[in-house]
Protein 1
Amino acid sequence: MEPLIITVAPVGAEATRQDNPNLPLTPREIANEAIQCAEKGASIIHLHVRDEDGKATQAKDIFQETIALIKKNSDVIIQTSTGGASWMTADERLQPIQLKPEMATLTTGTVNFGEEIFSNPMPMVEFFAKAMVDQGVKPEIEVFEVGMIYNALRLVQKKILQLPLHFDFVMGVPGGIPGEARHLLHLIESIPAGSTWTVAGIGRSELSLGMMAIVLGGHVRVGFEDNVYYTKGVLSDGNFQLVERIARIAKEIGRPVATPEQARRILGLIQ
Ligand code: KMH
Ligand code: ZN
């Protein structure tokens, strides 16, 4: 099996220091956490940033500062969020694309998100996809529901995106597809042959779905954006602990962990 790409999502838009006091918030804290996670086996950083008050922001300059700090000490792949937070406008969300990161997320549909709505009408999704293609940014298709796979394939039919696509199955968001094995199998069966996929299990499904992905030939995302616990009732000391565990399990099962360069090859970022 090809090496396992571990993505870490160290901060997200929703988690707070009340949820886990080890949550990184400033550019320096996020960068240090990212570098430490890369040392433990992460090859992609799924990046959100926060403002001075710790609130989610998509401000280009804060992304720029954080990315520069990461790149000083690591060649990990930077994947900026275009999801931002559910209350943000489209223009606000799209800002980090101007920095031409190697990758960015593209959610291809609207979903209930706890008490809120994560709104992604198709004209907006098309606009985001075109902006990514224009800037040479590889999208990771964020799938919160199976229909989002087919929305992404409509963008392929319209010749906006090209196969093979890389999908991230975000499973266990209240309002989205549940984080259960049968749903993971259904999602895998629904993507075209030749696609790559990763799974981001929310909360307690992070570990169980991650272990399934290791065995099934997919890839894994971990991190405080999705889960702040190490085990039931025990907070994680840091994102690095979640990365370290998934890398250890992969190695014990006989699946090597991808370096950033191997991840770039698997995802077609380099030939
Ligand atoms: N914060 C969520 C509303 C992404 O990064 O692309 C959306 C999200 C997805 O986190
Ligand atoms: Zn995100």
Protein 2
Amino acid sequence: MLELKNQTAVITGAGKGIGRAVAEALAAEGVHLGLIARTASDLETLRGELTEKYGVNVFVQAADVSVRTEIEAAVQALHEQLGAVDILINNAGIASFGKLVDMDPEEWERIIRVNLMGAYYTTRAALPFMIEQNSGNILNVASTAGERGFATGSAYCASKAALISMSEALMQEVRKSNIRVVTLNPSTVNTELASNNNLPIGDEDRMMQPEDVADLALATLKLPARVFVKSAGIWTTNPQ
Ligand code: NAD
């Protein structure tokens, strides 16, 4: 198992849900963090908590991942503050569901812009640092929705399928630089994203929690560098 202590990680959408759980799990391993949120002040409390509890450095930058200039500036600033970007977690994401003919085209496009373009912009900004240091780990939080489409999910499923596909292509491009690109594909997780969209979360004791995805992220990051994982999917109930 690889030691993560004193590595550095940039996490998008770290304010709540899965991103927050991953941030805490990495801090507990001694990883220094660069957290990105649309409003940096939203993350000040989390920064204080993680710094005090785990003694790691935590820097915060404001950026909307779907705005290229903003996310490029944020990644650049975090690289300067952290001194390196060893781990990138593309977690920021949004969801809304509706029949393709009924959905507002602007909403459809917004989902693609955040979930796909956002991960692309962030990766494009961080990758040169990883190539330069000849190592890195990129975890893209996709979804089982990207593995198989379902009714009302045309935008969300398409965004996550494209993210999976982009990750596989990138994996082939950067493996020679010892950079691993992995998609994490959870089924429904108990977060605001799920409850706001009335997603079936499952019964009380089999509800997947953000911390379960954080455990998966940690397990993936701790695999020896020689191991290339394409994707890691987790379900708490049987796949249908
Ligand atoms: P969440 O709504 O609790 O958290 C999402 C985070 O992303 C928030 O902090 C939000 O502010 C941030 N964010 C959204 N748009 C952003 C933007 N344009 N720029 C910067 N930050 C932005 O949701 P979650 O369930 O924790 O989702 C995290 C990721 O996991 C998403 O990519 C989501 O698609 C994926 N996912 C969620 C589930 C689920 O059931 N909850 C299942 C599979 C995959």
